[in-house]
Amino acid sequence: MTELAAVLWDMDGTLVDSEPYWIECEQRLVEEHGGTWSDAQAKDLIGSDLFVSAAVLRAAGVDMEPVALVNRLMDGVIERVQAELPWRPGARELLAECKSAGIRCALVTMSWRRFAQAILTACPDGSFEVTITGDEVTHGKPHPEPYEAAARGLGVDLGACVAIEDSRTGVASALAAGCATLGVPHVVQLDPAQNLTIRDTLVGVTVNDLRALVG
Fold first, then answer.
1. What residues have CB less than 8 Å from 58, skipping those under 6 apart?
2. Of the residues 14, 83, 89, 99, which has the fewest C-beta atoms closer than 10 A?
3. Taking 90 as the threshold, does the pLDDT of residue 108 lie above it?
4. Under CATH, what is the fold of the domain 6-17+86-214?
5. For residues 89 and 16, what is the distance between their CA atoms, to the nearest angstrom?
């Protein structure tokens, strides 16, 4: 039996319900520049590297340099998060149980460090031993690099880790890295895949459930 070495958490849409904030800010930015932004376009970007999002938004009419565009989006989302941090159902409880059980955790997000820090500040101290952000990797999700970097930072085998994800892009990254993956779809549905377990919610999910995924 393989022992559970670590839990690798996605952030947006998995730990916290920030995806609607990103979609709202994307919509507003495109409209400010005279473009149109559809629900389908927004959903396609969920879980993506922010420079990928910037390229799509520029193609939709946003006349800004990529770094400035990403920072503008983050400013809007950070403002909303600071006003209200909406946790995903069951996420805070499972994170607390992991800490109580001594299960090491890493945060693996395509959001940049500046935004991730706003979420980390609201989490109990010591929740995450390692944090990997989108501005600190060469290849973002769906490439396996973010999860590989998290496992390397923790010094653990990816085959002994469980990744928790809500998006197709994130699931693809985690599976490509070799993680047992718990998919909890939120804005978009997930397709069945080998080594992927899909649950409607994290409510009621326990550390023993996570252990079973690598066992």
1. 64, 66, 69
2. 83
3. yes
4. Rossmann fold (3.40.50)
5. 9
